[in-house]
Every structure is written in C-alpha cells, then in structure tokens.
Amino acid sequence: MSTEIRVPQLPESVADATLVTWHKQPGDAIQRDENLADLETDKVVLEVPAPANGVVRELRVKSGTVVKSGQVLAVIEEGAVDGKRAAAAASAPASAPAAAVNAGAGAARGVQAPKSAPVAAPVAATDAGRLSPSVRRLVEENQLDPGRIPASGRDGRLTKSDVVDYLGRQPVEAPSAPAVQPAPSATPPPGAAAAALARPPAVGARAEQRVPMTRLRARIAQRLIEAQSTQALLTTFNEVDLTATQELRARYRERFEKEHGVKLGFMSFFVRAAIDALKKFPVVNASVDGNDILYHEYYDIGVAVSTERGLIVPVVRDADSKSFAMLEKQVADYARRAREGSITIEDLTGGTFTITNGGVFGSLMSTPIVNAPQSAILGMHKIQDRPMVVNGQIVVRPMMYLAVTYDHRIIDGREAVQFLVAIKEALEDPGRMLLGI
Fold it and tell me: Which one from 33, 82, 318, 412 is the annotated catalytic residue?
C-alpha cells in the first residue's frame, strides 16, 4: 500500500519551511519513526518521520525547496522487505527529481564535503551509541570514520561542530595534468634559463564559495535590522565585583550538585538578579504596542544559546517562581536540546527580557541588540581579575562588565542606569536575593 508523506502542520507563526536534507533515496528501506527528511524553519529544524515500515518509492521535491503545511514530500510503499529495493521505485521518471535531491544538501548546511572523501565503514555499534542523532547522520552522509575525528565533547564525545570543523579542514583535490618530461637529448634554447628565473611565481588559487543563508541565519539578520530600524537603541555599562557570588558558589557547589543533580552556574544568579531589578523598574520588562506601552506582570526570561546554526533564545517561563536549581536545570536542558537540534518552536516563542553571555567566548565588552518586541537585553561578559581600590587598598577582584541595551522610546537613561545598578548590587551581595531585600 502506498502512503504519502506530507509536511507536518507548522505552527501559526511559521508560514513555510525549507527541505534541507533527504536521509533516504528511492528504493531505500525505512523503518517506522525513522527520520526521512529535515525541514528547516525560521527557528528550528523539524524531522519528518516515516509513519510505517516500508520502502521509499518516490521523492516529490528537491533539497532547498520551500514547502508548506500538508504538501506531499514523498511516497513510501508499506510492507516491503527490509534491505531490498522495490522495482517500482527504481524507475527513472518517477525519481527524476531525486537525482539531484542531495546535491545541495551540504551547501544548504554551509558544509562542503571533500570531493574525494574516503569511503569509511559504517558506524560501529559501539560508536553509534556515543553519537547523537545529528552527529551520526552527518558522519554517515559524508562517509567518515568517527574514530579519526578529534572529539571535544564531554567524556570524549564527538559533537556536530567537531565533524563540521573536520570537513572544513579536508583538502579539495584538484585534477593534476600529467607532467611533460623533456627529451633527454633536448637542449634548452639560449636565454631560456634566464627567462624562467624572470617569470613571476605561480599564484595560489583564489577560490570563492557561494553558500545560501540558512533560514535561521536569514531570520536573525531580518530581526536585527528590524530592531535597529524601529527602536531607539542605547546601551549603558557598569561593572560588577563577583567575589561574593564566587565565594557562595564555591561554598555550596558540591552540596548543591549532590542535592539537585545539576551544577551551580552563574546564569541562575544573573536571572534572579535581573528579575529583582525588573520588579523595581517594570518599564524595562514592558514592550511597545502601537502607541501603547504593554506592561508584562510576568517574567519570561530568554537565555541566548549559541548553536552551529546560529543564535537562538529559549524562554524560561515564569522564571520568578523558579528556584536556583530549577533555573539551572532548565537552562542546561535548553542548551543541550538547542545544540542537538531538538528544541521546539514553543520553547523559543515569547519572552519579556533577554540575557546573553558573550563572556563564554572571551568577550570583554559588547553592545547587545534588543530581541524585539522586547525593550531591553542584558549582556554578560568575561570574568577577569583586575586591580580594584577597596577601602583604600588595591586588591585583585574578579570583575565583569555588564551592558544593558534598551529602547529609549519608553525607557529613560535614569531608569536604565538604576536598573543595571540594581543588578550589580544584587550580585555583589547575593544574600539580598535570598532574603528579598
């Protein structure tokens, strides 16, 4: 029995999607719930699972095609024998679009596999258990040996960025013309040696590669331009002494992890400090709606996460009602799922205020851009030991520059500065957050 595979129902905020990669070709066996294709939206990558066991009979669209909800992507023949190719699927006319289906898959992901990639054995069962689904697909598609790729993940695990970096380092072989050897008896003409010395050396290849933006990257570009063109953005800076926060973390780190099963990081402190400051200055948690100011009486805090596809902002709902442990668990879970590509659109929707941490990449100071329609964003930066004057004495303290970019249409400079000072005071005396003072 033939079954049509259609684009799943997309959320209301997503009009269409781009088919990035086919994981099966006509004639390939497929198991129920096995991923057939990847669809990229403006926010996340969606998988298209097979509804039943069978054999792929036909692919209806090529990689890079923009598709809409309900559109037919492929046809499978249910009940076919695993590992065998269906004769009906091998016909050229039915699978003509599929011949070039994966031709642009590497370019759509911004990855170009080497032209002469060595054929590697299938991923061993021991390796497969240590690879995430996205990493395993990338390794198999490019016929790589995971054992030859340097791993940077926890406990020696291979990450998707490791594979992408490995592919980027592979040399692209150029066809070489056979060398012409002069006849043994040939005598070079007069002046030939001098002419050869005067000839300029050969210039290396000046290659260029045109790669289309991913949907996420194009959406990020659009949102940033919209924010700068529609909001009156201004940034104010301050610095915070994290001595007390670091001492508190060091004192309770082991006990906290043993009790709650998650590490005590800095993000929970910054989220709680930001919420306390937002309660004191509600306009920073507001947004512009036409000619009105919309004050939000809840605190949905977005935490920016960097992935291979770009920066995304999962939202911690009702963050003011969550404990330090709950905040750490949810932020860690968001970061893991974002990098694995399993985050959902619902996780990225909404938010009243955003926190971004450029310090993890070594940034000492920056001016973050507001995540519209929000009105402000807090930028964290690198913790750096610096000499400071404390009680008339020069001492070394762990310092961090903080930045708040805000929409000057509704937030005055006085409020923005006082908001940032409130965050600074909470972090320099974290006991105040626990006591609510």
Answer: 412
Residue 313 shares a structural domain with residue 426: yes
How many residues are recorded in the chain? Answer: 437
Angle at 261 (CA atoms; ends 260, 264), nearest 5 degrees: 75
What DSSP assignment string belongs to 316-342? ETTGGG--HHHHHHHHHHHHHHHHHT-
Judgement on whether residues 272 and 390 belong to the same structural domain of the protein: yes
Do 92 and 130 belong to one domain? no
- Within this chain, do residues 155 and 244 fall inside the same structural domain, yes or no? no
Domain count, the chain: 3
Q: Which CATH number fits the domain that encloses residue 158?
A: 4.10.320.10
Closest CA to 355 of 232, 250, 246, 269: 269
pLDDT value of residue 206:
86
- Positions of E strands within 127-269: 233-241
Q: Does residue 360 share a domain with residue 431? A: yes
Q: Is 318 left (phi over 0), alpha (psi -120 to 50) or beta?
A: left
Query: Choosing from 127, 260, 320, 408, which is the catalytic residue?
Result: 408
Helix, strand, or coil here: 4?
A: strand
d(C-alpha 426, C-alpha 422), whole Å? 6
The pLDDT confidence band at residue 425, using thresholds 50, 70 and 90, is very high
Which is more confident, 146 or 94? 146
Annotation marks residue 23 as catalytic: no
In tens, the pLDDT along 355-373 reads: 999 999 999 999 999 998 9
User: What range does the domain containing 24 cover?
Assistant: 1-99
Each residue of 70-106: pLDDT tens digit?
889 999 888 754 444 444 444 444 444 444 444 444 4
- Nearest Cα residue to 235 out of 349, 365, 129: 365
Clarify whether residues 284 and 358 are in a common domain.
Answer: yes
Asked if 381 is an active-site residue, the reply is no
Q: What local confidence, expressed as pLDDT, does residue 324 receive?
A: 94
Cis amide prior to 373 (ω within 30 degrees): yes
Residue-wise pLDDT for 401-413, tens only, equals: 999 999 999 999 9
In a domain, 200, yes or no: no
**pTM to 2 decimals?**
0.62
Mark 157-189 as b/e (b = at least 16 C-beta within 10 Å).
ebbbebbbebbeebeeeeeeeeeeeeeeeeeee
CA 74 to chain centre: 28
